[in-house]
Amino acid sequence: MSTSTLRTGIAATVADAREYFRTGATRDLAWRSGQLSALAALLTENRPTIEQALWQDLHKSATEAQITEIGGTLSDIAHTRRHLRRWVRPRRARLPLGLAPASARLVTEPLGVVLVIAPWNYPVQLLLAPLVGAIAAGNAVVLKPSELAPQVSSTFAELVPKYLDPRAVRVVEGGVDETTELLRQRFDHIFYTGNGQVAKIVLRAAAGHLTPVTLELGGKSPVWFDDDAHLAQVARRLAWGKFTNAGQTCIAPDYILTTPDRVAPLTEAIAAAVTEMWGEDAAQSPDYGRIVNERHHARLVGYLADGTVAFGGRHDAATRYLSPTILHLDGPGAAGEGPAVMEEEIFGPVLPIVPVASPGAAVDHIAAREKPLALYVFTASAATRELFVAESSSGGVGLDVALLQAGAPSLPFGGVGASGMGAYHGEYSVTTFSHRKPVLRKGFALDALRFVQPPFTSAKRRIAAKRTGAS
To answer: Residues 313, 304: contact at Cβ < 8 Å?
Structure first.
């Protein structure tokens, strides 16, 4: 496809979506609810096809696909349909006595045309979860699936027009050129999930149109551990949180901080949990994933030289396999001076365990670095839990569990600082893709406005001075 054809086609796609939005069709609550039902039907009626696409792209098992991709999206749809009317109805707003008599309300209105740019690691859930919120808020949507999950991308390019209103929900496939061209267009909101480097490009492009942006990024989500009484349970939860989807999860535990005496027993317990879940050789497990491509596989294998491999470390470039791996480091190092595995988001099945002197030292380590998307604390001490919650900043916190904070539709999901901006899930998605417009009415009876309108007589000056506290 020539550059001019590409530009013309994408510009026309966005223009058509905007023209349809202006008809008002997407504002209708019945339309929104119907589209959400149709999206649920797309997922349930094409389950085997979607599962196969996820297997081809990421070696993701059907059960994991149900748990982490399809099932969660269906729950989000059901939750949104159940509460949508309440979320979007006008709300009365209180006014100060000085404005009386008057009334005000907040009217929730859609933003317009939304662009959703999805990543490859959860290519179904992270494409459709923002779509649920955008549709629920009454917007038209352009979807850009990840080209690094090509089977999922082509599957949804085929299915979306069959189930959803093709005038309101469009799919644009492709890579860098197509994404670049999309970012040249004017949208009313851009929702991007991915890495920080591309996020900067998205943000710069959005600034040209003064378009608001939601960025769901990642970072090095740390773990603190000192709960010896629940060692086996903690190890299983950590292994599950880290090695699900072969570690390619933005909120996966990135590294563990613990005291030196706990490194060995924690390593043994996590190794036992890995063996229990994925067997002696995870390469033979139908439930263990693969790295998305050769470049990321080589990057992850390179981290193995940054410490001592205490468990795992087996890899095969031909099949993009990297076993669940535990890496021992001597210490965390100063910010910006540590090995690559402690400076870069790992995003794979390599789990460093790093000794530090105390919970306070762990908090200092975390605070000296970019704010992570998630923080996990496994401790029996209420004081230690409160220390991490109060003295560190992160997108969210999991106490005695990993990942689950992203699965609760009643909680906002999003980052802070380098881990992102904005939030979504449940009502927070509708808020993200809406504008709450204040509407104020002041009738003509008892026209108190005369007291603030010229000419300013001595009586009016006294009233103004009294209200402002002037002498």
So the answer is: yes
Query: What's the pLDDT score for residue 469?
Result: 67
Q: Could you identify the residue written with the tokens 């061209």?
A: 181
Concerning whether 216 is annotated as a catalytic residue, the answer is yes
Residues in Cβ contact with 344 at an 8 Å cutoff, skipping those fewer than 6 apart:
220
Q: What's the token pair of residue 57?
A: 């792209």
H or E element, residue 91: strand 91-92
The low-confidence residues of the chain, meaning pLDDT below 70, are: 1-2, 4, 468-471
Q: In 379-432, where does DSSP find H-type helix?
A: 382-391, 427-432
Give kind and range of the element (H or E) at residue 327.
strand 325-328
| Dihedral angle, C-alpha 448, 453, 457, 459, nearest 10 ° | 30
Question: Which run of H or E residues covers position 266?
Answer: helix 263-278
Q: What is the pLDDT of residue 1?
A: 61
Name the amino acid, one letter, at 204: R
- What does the H/E/C string look like for 173-210? CCCHHHHHHHHHCCCCEEEEECCHHHHHHHHHHHHCCC
Catalytic residue among 250, 337, 391, 427: 250
The angle formed by the CA atoms of residues 437, 443 and 446, to the nearest 5 degrees, is: 140
Give the burial class of 66: count Cβ atoms within 10 A of its Cβ; 0-12 exposed, 13-18 middle, 19 or more buried. middle
- What whole-number distance in Å separates Cα of residue 85 and Cα of residue 318? 51
d(CA 439, CA 190): 26
Enter the tokens of residue 459: 């009586």
Q: Which position among 216, 294, 337, 345 bears the catalytic label?
A: 216
Q: Which amino acid is at 137?
A: A
Q: Are strands 350-355 and 325-328 parallel, antiparallel or unpaired?
A: parallel
Q: For the packed helices 29-45 and 150-163, what is the interaxial angle rounded to 10 degrees?
A: 130
Q: What local confidence, expressed as pLDDT, does residue 28 receive?
A: 97
Q: In sequence order, what E strands does 208-300 have? A: 213-216, 222-225, 255-258
Region of 300 (left: φ > 0; alpha: ψ -120 to 50; beta: rest) is alpha
CB neighbourhood size of 391 (10 A): 13
Helices (DSSP H) in 89-149: which residue ranges? 125-136
Which amino acid makes up residue 90?
P
User: How far is residue 32's CA from residue 86's CA, in Å, rounded to a whole number?
Assistant: 14
- Grouping H, G, I as helix, E, B as strand and the rest as coil, residue 256 is strand
Per-residue pLDDT tens digits for 39-68: 999 999 999 999 999 999 999 999 999 999
What's the DSSP call for residue 452? G
Q: Taking a C-beta distance cutoff of 8 angstroms, is the pair 373, 394 a contact?
A: yes
